[in-house]
Design brief:
The protein is α/β, with parallel strands linked by helices and 370 residues long. It has helices at 20-24, 35-52, 67-78, 92-103, 121-130, 152-161, 181-184, 210-213, 227-236, 247-263, 265-285, 314-323, 349-362; strands spanning 9-10, 58-64, 84-89, 107-112, 136-140, 142-143, 148-149, 165-169, 188-192, 203-209, 301-305, 326-327, 329-330, 338-342. It contains 13 helices and 14 strands. A seven-stranded mixed sheet has the order 2-10-9-8-5-3-4, sandwiched between helices. The protein has a three-stranded antiparallel sheet with strand order 11-14-13, with no helix packed on it.
Length: 370
């Protein structure tokens, strides 16, 4: 529900609306070198590994910056100069991984599946068979360009059939959808503090297969984004960061993790699914159409087709909803005019009911255009 100090609810894929208790723990200051603070970091790292897989042999690294910083830290630190990266893209965030790889000079193949189609594992198999020089494969789990979920489990089987390193960008899904890295056969999983774990922006993190990360020493093309050195410092220093860490954000994340444990991952996933189901059912009743079929849709964020009304303006629609206490997202696909509504964060089905009333109030003529 909306906190008294917040004028609106964020229905976005992150940053998102957080609980009062997550906000409140940021009122205290922390010293980056203090043992109490470093113990919090170590606890977070251990809990992230537990959340990612019950299997042994994994570790976690925290990295300052947004989720994209963590993605870039992974790509620049994991793929050696002699390596070759295959990016499986079907949206803006897969494309962004390709752009990162280009900027740092990686040998690269981008296989593009289009914005409204999932990654096809059999096509991945064909690409790997035709390009034996590929050493690493990267894919986005929940592509928030559309809200699509990619089949990271079956992709993982193909990647490991060819003996490649598997990198999964789970930015918008980790903590909201059950994931077992070991079952996925993933070597690296990347996410961020301000997504489904419901913390605030300030750092990303990588859960890694330890034996694979240990082989990455000296690969990084960046000082501040050296994932291996960051991990080594945290390991040797008992939770220390190489450079100034976002202490308030880290403490808020520890609180968010505690609240995830209290709610339970299964229950959080069910809540997100309920939010998304109520949203889609209600929007369809109001005359809106979804961009993706239901079978492709994640519970994280949903893309809706914009009304075919010459007078429709997303900016006006956005402002009308904001005045009633809800903030949504513009569209990001290039093949259709859309807008997006997120379902994650401190959001419940009752909030979705109120949103639907606001949508109908803000755009009552919608039924005439579908």
């Amino acid at each position: 529900m909306i906190h008294p100090v917040n004028p609106y609810l964020l229905l976005t894929p992150g940053p998102l609306s957080t609980t009062s208790s997550v906000k409140e723990v940021m009122l205290r200051d922390w010293c980056t070198w203090d043992r109490d603070y470093n113990n919090i970091v170590q606890q977070i790292r251990a809990e992230l590994v537990t959340l990612a897989t019950p299997a042994a042999g994994f570790t976690a690294v925290l990295m300052q910056g947004s989720g994209t910083f963590a993605v870039e830290a992974t790509l620049t630190s994991v793929v050696p100069v002699s390596g070759k990266l295959l990016v499986l893209a079907n949206g803006a965030y897969g494309d962004r991984m390709g752009e990162i790889a280009r900027r740092i000079g990686l040998s690269l193949i981008i296989e593009n599946f289009g914005e409204i189609s999932p990654v096809d594992p059999e096509r991945v198999r064909q690409v790997l068979a035709e390009n034996p020089s590929i050493t690493h494969v990267a894919v986005v789990h929940c592509e928030t360009t559309t809200g699509m979920l990619n089949p990271v489990d079956t992709i993982g089987v193909v990647v490991k059939d060819f003996g490649k390193i598997y990198i999964v960008d789970a930015m918008s899904s980790f903590g909201g959808i059950a994931i077992d890295m070991n079952s996925l056969q993933a070597d690296f999983l990347i996410s961020s503090a301000n997504k489904c774990i419901q913390g605030v922006p300030g750092f990303g993190f990588v859960v890694a297969r330890t034996e694979v990360l240990e082989r990455c020493e000296g690969n990084a093309r960046s000082l501040s984004l050296d994932l291996y050195d960051q991990w080594r410092t945290m390991e040797d220093g008992g939770g220390k960061w190489r450079f100034t860490s976002p202490t308030h954000v880290v403490r808020a994340f520890a609180q968010a993790l505690e609240e995830l444990q209290q709610e339970g991952l299964d229950n959080r996933c069910k809540r997100y699914f309920a939010n998304q189901r109520y949203l889609v059912e209600g929007m369809r009743q109001l005359g809106f159409a979804t961009l993706l079929p239901d079978l492709m849709q994640s519970p994280i964020i949903t893309s809706f087709c914009s009304p075919a009304d010459a007078d429709y303006s997303f900016t006006a629609f956005y402002k009308a909803l904001k005045q009633q206490g809800f903030v949504i997202y513009p569209g990001k696909v290039t093949v259709a005019d859309t807008f997006r509504i997120g379902n994650i964060g401190d959001v419940y089905p009752g909030d979705i009911d109120q949103l639907l009333v606001a949508v109908e109030t803000s755009y009552p003529s919608i039924r005439r255009y579908y």
